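Quick one - first record:
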Amino acid sequence: MAGSDPTGGAGLQLDLQVFRSLGVHGAAVPTALTIQDTTKVHRVLPTFPSVLLDQLRVLLADLPPHALKLGMLATDDVVRNVALGLEMLPASVPIVIDPILFASDGAPLLERRAWPMLQELFGRAALVTPNRPEAEALLGRDASTRQGAEDAARAFVDEFGAEATLVKGGHADGAPDDVLAFREGDEIRVEWLPGERIETGPVHGTGCALSAAVTAELAKGCGLREAVVTAHVFVADAIRDSFAAGGGARLLGFPASA
């Protein structure tokens, strides 16, 4: 479940490309239409909430998923109806939430009054994947430093109830290392995942691709850490194979599926 990106470089269209590349079938419920190109988001038009809810309920009844991803949710009405629809989803089905608040150009992609409802959904998540600015905004604390990012990752598990959190480091100065926090018994463990700064210029959709890749691996039955590590490698390769298609950010490149 995500917004539609007509460039195919992010959002729903990209998620389906990632699923296909990783060998799983992707079903999709759009949360919003966007008017955008490779340079910026020009306008966002949320899906009519009752239509979204009907789509979700019918889909879950007929094609029960092995894993589910939530991306851009746009408005509080959309978040509310997503939550209603997910009541049909068995607790055993992992949910990956990519809490998309803003586009790369700064355009808002989730209205501010919807943030508390999104935070409530975190308690249902197998993994939440904020970048550092998103973590700062949702927690109201600094996550720009290594220690700040680690504390933020712990907080999503401890305060919001997520099973695990991956705070992405692409916005960090220096190496774009990510930090994974997850509950192990009564403890919250933290593990740093080294990243590589691949100098290609701006690339569209990396966060969407990462969360979609984790979702695909979880659907195949992989453990969480294995899914995250596999997704890291997949996205790094996609960045190396990225290509210029328009006048703005590059688009990710994926291997042809078998």
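second record:
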Amino acid sequence: MNNYKSFETDRLFIKPTIESDADFIFELMNTPKWIKNIGQRNINSIEDAKNYINNKILPQLEKLGYSNYTVSLKIDNTKIGTCGLYNREGIDGVDIGFAFLPQHEKMGYAFESSNKIMQIALPEFGIKKISAITIKENLNSQKLIEKLGLSFIKMIKLPNDSEDLMLYSLEYLLKKSN
């Protein structure tokens, strides 16, 4: 695999999710909040998690240079969540997403890691438009998305999905120099 960029904040390491993160991805994707707010991904074993990483996460990373990132605490390298940039069908712009284990919520980690990802999106990857989606019932996600500077645009449905989702967006306005 190529040497993809990792990032850090004062408290966190943010590194591309790879196959060795399968145990953690299995745990995270099977939390009740993940299933309720993001959806069942049928990750029923560590092997399923490895397949998900190899078939869903790594191909985008290899194609675009960004994808899902595993977020770990600097203090002890404990894996606590994920955030990332996703090239999602049906979304105008790159979708930013985040999810954390319940015991690591409400500590500012989701904002800290997602804000870092947004800060590097334009200079590192040339991304000019960031979008986000969430279900109407997920008020915490809506608050975080708005804190990141995105504005609600409209309700949408993704292709091959019947669920109504709230679409948020932020477009980077580049100043033209004379």
